[in-house]
Structure formats: C-alpha cells, structure tokens
Amino acid sequence: MNPHSAYLRRRFLCWSTVIAVLAIGGAIDRRAVAQTNAPGTLFQWSYGANFEGGPDLDAPLVTDRPDFTEASSTVGVGVTQLEMGYTYTYRDHSGANRGHSIGEPLFRVGALANWFEMRLGWNYMHERQDLASSTSRLSGLDDLYLGAKIGLTPQEGFLPEMALIPQMTVPVGDVDHTAGEVLPGVNWIYGWDINEFLGTAGSTQINRVLDGTTSAAYYEIAQSWTFGYTLTDRLGAYTEWFALMPSGADTDRTQHYLNGGFTYLMSDNVQLDVRAGKGLSGTGDDYFLGTGASLRFGAGGLLRR
After folding, report:
1. What's the N-to-C CA distance of the chain in angstroms?
2. CB-CB contact of 169 with 63 (8 Å)
3. Residue 101 to residue 95: CA distance in whole angstroms
4. Which DSSP letter does residue 61 get?
5. Rounded to an integer, what distance in angstroms lies between the CA atom of residue 127 and that of residue 256?
6. Is the C or the N end of the chain the one with fewer CB within 10 Å?
7. What's this model's pTM, rounded to 2 decimal places?
8. In angstroms, what is the C-alpha Rg of the chain?
9. DSSP E strands: which ranges in the chain?
10. What pLDDT does 110 receive?
11. Cα(137)–Cα(129) distance, rounded to whole angstroms?
C-alpha cells in the first residue's frame, strides 16, 4: 500500500471517530440531563447507603485540567464538556529545548449512564531545539487520544470516590509526532472531599509508551497526588506532585514534578485556569507554564447560569 494512502486512510478514520463521538453527544435527548435519580457510579460502598444520583448540573463544573490528576467524577449523561489549553515547556539537556502544546482539546461526552463518559483528545505540538551549531524545529498533530471514564464508587466517609479510565493513543499524528502504533493504558483515580476548603486525590496509571531515543516500547507507571483548595466561591487552587516511572526502558529515566495553579469560575459552566510546574529529577522538563479554559454544554447547548 502507498504510505501516503495509508496515512490519508488513518486520518479519515480519525476524523470519522471525532465526528461520531461528537454526534453521539449531541444526539442524546435533553431529558437525559434531568435523570437526577440515576446512579452516578457503577457501584456503592454499602448497600442502600450513599448511592448518589448523577452529577449536580446546578453546581459548578468539575474539570480534569489543569492538574495531572484527572477528576474522579464523570460529567453526567447528556452533557458534553470541552477542556482546552496551552502549555510551554523548557529543558536544557545538551541544548535548549522549547515546546509549545497548542489546543490540548479534551472532549468529555456523557453517554448511556451517569457513570459513563467517552473521551477524545487531539493536540498540536511545536518544538524547537537549539544546539551549538544548529537549530531544529518540529511541528504537527499528535496521535489521537481515546478513552472512557467509568465512575466506580461515590465517597463514603474515608472510602474514596473512584473512577477508572481505559485509554489509548491511535497512530494518526503527523510523521514527527506519531508513535506509529496503538499505545494502550489504564488510569485509576481516587479522591476525597475533606471539608468545604480542602480536597485531595491521586491517580495510578500504567501506559505503553515508546523510548525517546530508541523508540522501543515499554510500560510506564505514572503516579500523582494533588490537593485542591476552595479559596472563594469562584477562585480555587491546587498543589501537586507526579512522577513518570519507566519499566524496561532503554534510555528513558524516572521524572518527578511539582506543580500548582489556580482556577477561576466565570460561571458554573465556564472555568479558566493557569498553572506552573518544575522538574525535580533532572531528566525531564526543567519547567512548564500553562493556561486553559473549560466549557460545559447540555444536550441543547451551553448550560445556563
């Protein structure tokens, strides 16, 4: 098969998937949004107790960004949430490397039940490396991210709210940004609301990735822990640690990061964010800066309030 034809076919399948996911979100009947008595999780900790309904659409939206740790809740059936942003990264390892992650769109579509959401993301990258005698630039679309978040349990006392995300990337990115193969993974998230001011959460992931130097495949464990703070009705903040730990990599090494940021609710359905982070291990990015926005839509358009 002609390589260019194969590339165009992958792109066609990718855009078909994007359109299908968004069409499903738009086709869900508006009445599904009102299913407040439908379970918000697949399981419960104790029979007949705290088996909560779906997400409260009269409360502010809960987003997966801007921290590394995803939310342990789903968006709710009949709801589409778009989260997007920009991140600048810098590292100085045998030359200055600057990266621009542009768009970062994540579509979260609640479907079938309040405890289930479909997830789709696709991003544009621009990278520049300055060496002593030359400068190189790479730009293009990343591979497509596909996933599904399953709400497992509500919080009950010290027992956490939990969710599970089976996920993968599909090789439809531009030539300089594609892995060339499907890379599967899974993400387990757990969180607690401690009081009106403080919440905490963590995530444990295992994902198949490619070595940055040899392109050999290995499995990477990603662990994170975050603390969220409600400063006012509109202003929030977080601090977080996360680590990327390769298992069986040829050259990639463990990376540790600290980061923090702020969120601001323009309304219950529109949130802005900023963040900054620093690498601790000397093997990853030296620092990163980012900003973004999140919008929540119902089946009939942007939810009011």
Report:
1. 53
2. no
3. 19
4. P
5. 21
6. N
7. 0.88
8. 20
9. 80-92, 96-110, 116-121, 124-130, 135-141, 144-153, 161-170, 183-193, 198-210, 217-230, 235-247, 255-267, 270-279, 287-298, 301-302
10. 95
11. 7
Q: What is the pLDDT of residues 41-61, one digit of tens each?
A: 899 888 655 555 667 778 999
Nearest residue to 226 via CA among 234, 236, 217, 235: 236
Place of tokens 């801007």: 66
Tokens of 117: 């959401």
Dist. CA 96–CA 129, nearest whole Å = 6
And the tokens for 73? 């809740």
Spatial distance between the Cα atoms of 141 and 297, rounded to a whole number of angstroms: 26
Do you know the residue count of the chain?
305
Contacting residues for 5 by C-beta, under 8 A, at least 6 apart: none
Triad 107, 254, 92: Cα angle to 5°: 85
81's tokens: 């949430």
Q: Residue 139 has what pLDDT?
A: 92
Q: How far is CA 261 from each of CA 184, 268, 286, rounded to the nearest angstrom?
A: 29, 19, 17
pLDDT band at 30 (very low <50, low <70, confident <90, very high): very low
Q: Are 105 and 18 in contact (CB under 8 A)?
A: no
Whether the predicted pLDDT of 11 surpasses 70? no
Evaluate whether 92 touches 110 at the Cβ level (below 8 Å). Answer: no
Token readout for 211 is: 């070595």
Q: Could you report the per-residue pLDDT of 73-115, keeping only the tens digit for each?
A: 999 999 999 999 999 999 987 678 999 999 999 999 999 999 9
Nearest 5°: phi and psi at 201? Answer: -160, 160
Secondary structure (3-state) at 66: coil
